[in-house]
Structures are given as structure tokens and as C-alpha cells.
Amino acid sequence: MPPFFNPLALFAIVITLATAFAIINHRYLHLPTTIGITAQALGVATVLLFLEQAVPMPRMDAARAVLDSINLPATLLDGALSFLLFAGAQSVDQRELWQNRFSILALALLGTMLAVALFAVGMWMAFPLVGLAISLPWCVVLGAMLAPTDPVSVVGMLRRLGLPPKVQAIFAGESLFNDGVGVVVFAVAVQLAAAGTIDPLGDLVWQMVQEVGGGLLLGFLCGCLAVWCIRLVTDAHLELLISICLASGVYSLAKMLEVSGPVSAVTAGLALGMPRALGALSQHGQREIRNFWMMVDEVLNACLFVLIGFYVLSVPIHGAVLLAAVLAIPLSIAVRALSVLLAMLPAYLRDAQRWRVLSIMTWGGLRGGISIALALSLEHGPMRDVLLAVCYAVVVFTILVQGLTMERVVRQVRLGAAEG
Description:
Elements: H1 7-29, H2 33-54, H3 59-70, H4 72-90, H5 94-99, H6 101-126, H7 136-146, H8 151-161, H9 165-195, H10 203-231, H11 236-257, H12 261-272, H13 275-280, H14 283-310, H15 319-343, H16 345-350, H17 354-363, H18 369-376, H19 382-419
Helix pairs in contact: 1-2, 1-14, 2-14, 4-11, 4-12, 4-14, 4-18, 6-7, 6-9, 6-15, 7-9, 7-18, 7-19, 8-9, 9-10, 9-12, 10-11, 10-12, 11-12, 11-14, 15-17, 15-19, 17-19, 18-19
Subcellular location: Cell membrane
GO molecular function: potassium:proton antiporter activity; sodium:proton antiporter activity
Domain Cation/H+ exchanger transmembrane: 19-411
């Protein structure tokens, strides 16, 4: 790797590409920004792959080396995710979130576990059809990668669709909290897959209780401490610094205490957005914090989605894997619908109107950078190559196809409700 590829240079490359793609999208494509950036990055990378097949291109190795240097698993899971989740938590309607807390918890906990199990069994049955021998434990790993919906994609989508506040709160709340659950399940699933056996109740249940419960408690306590610190000052810039300390500190502390960093970051962000916390902030401080975290959200989103597009350069694709990906895409949609339905079955039985929302919840279950980062964190080998390729195909499909058609699905549901 050339010496000038230091962290600042890598960030400059990514943010420059993201900015260029955003300008092109704004001027000509008129797509949602994250989708437009991903589509252009994917398009450029695909053209480079075709050119590499036609004409040897030594520079392609350099491009892949840059992607490896960025190290998405470490960059996202051990850094940027804390700021993305913290920013997303502050943009949620807290009143609606609390009123729908049981639905959110059911989706984030039970729904995620169901999605992992159903997708794992489905792919375990599908892989032999294309000539791939993937054991059930590794299929569970794949299910854990793709079970969490992506808060970056979902929260951004909700801002432009104008869904009812209740549906927005359930959507955003689930996507913010199920990351922590998915990461815990993934970590345990990898350990069990390496051992070659699956223990459905042992380590998984205890580790989930420890990490998720500990993350909730740590996030709430750190959020309360931050509010207490804010009451000691009257300077808007100091209030902003406290919020930055909270977002980065709670995630790092969670890693040290071996509890869920994503859950702690979300909980801390929600704690800072409570009415009591907002009352402690000056009006100027509220504006500074809101504007700062919106900007952080936009910048990190742009960088993340340009990386998602370019990571096709590092995905090993061949005939059998491509066929497996084709089977995985409709399976992921069916599993999403079934996991949402089963997790909230009592609510659906009580309220017939919820059946109309099921299609929105299903089609809006976008996956994103977290799934790819988890796949990339696996040890190099044939198993990683297969799981990464299938995971990447599902992620790209959800972002480009489901993301672009989500507005049409919402309109059809509203039309059906009006006619009914």
C-alpha cells in the first residue's frame, strides 16, 4: 500500500467520490441520495470489472487494496456505527416510540430471531439445489448477517415517505434496536459454526440477555449522566461537546464491558432526546446539536453507501454462488414478511388495519452496510466467499429495488385503504 494512503487520504477519497456522485444524482438522476450514490458506485465498479476481464488492469489491485485498507468491519462496527445510531435515535418521535414499545421490542427481539432461523433453514435447503454444500450452522451465520434491517437506510427512507407517525416509530425503532440483537446472534453463530454444532438455547440466550440488557442499562445511565453535565453549563458549544462525548464514549465503554455497543448508543441517543433532557438544553444548544448530528448523519451515510457500491470489486462471484444469490433474494423477502407477522401476530389478530401495513413493513426491510461489514469480518476462505456474495446480492437488491419502489408500495397501500 502506498504510504500516502493514510486514514485522512482514505477519507478524502471516499468523501470526494460520494460528493461527486451526490452532485450527479442531484443534477440528473433525482433519486434518493443514498440510493443514487450506491447505484453510481456500483455502476462504476461493474464497468471496471468488465474492463478488467477485457484488458488487464493492474490498477484494479490498487482499488481493492484501498477497500481492504478502509477495513469496513472495524470502521463501521467499531466506530462510525456509534454516531449513525446515536444520530438516528435523536430523529425518532419519542412519544410514538414509547407508545409502541411492545411492538418494537417484539420485532427487534423475536422478529430478528425468527428471521435468522427461517432464513437459515431456507438457505440450508436451497444451497444443495445449486451444488453448494453449506452446513446449517453456517446458514445460521448468513441468517444473522441479513436479519437486521439497516437504520441508515430505513430512517432516511421514512423521512421522505410521509408514513403515519405510528408506523414510522415502529419502523425506526425496530431498525435501531435490532442491530444490537443481530450482532450478538452473529457473534454466537460464528462460534457455534466453527465448532460445527448449534445450541439454540445455551450461550445464545445468555449472551443476548447480557449484551442487550447491559446495553440498555449502560446507555440509559450514560444518557442521564450527560443530561446532568448539560445542566451544569449554559454554553451551546459545550452542550454539543457533551453529546459527542456521549455518542463515542458509551459505545467504547460498552465494548470494554462486553455489552452491546449498538443498543447502548441507541439508548443514549434516546435519553438525550427525552423532554427532560431537551429542557436542560438551551435553545441555541438544541439547534447546534440537531444541526450537527444531521450533518454527521449525512456525511457518514454518503461515505457508507459509496463503499457499499464499490465493494462489488471484492465480492467473489461465480455461477453457483450467483444462482444461490438469486434464490436468496425472494427468500429474504418471504422471511421478512413471515417474521414480522409471527412476531406481531396478536396485534394483527386484534386489528385488521395492520394487515395493510404488513406489506410496507416487509418491503421496507432494507439491509445495508452492517450486513456487509459482518460478512467481511469472517475469516478468509471458501465459506466466507459464498456467504459474502449472497449477503451482498441481497443488500444491493434491497437498497436499489426495494428502496426505489417503496414509495409506490406505500401509495398502493394507501389507495387500498381508501377504497376499503
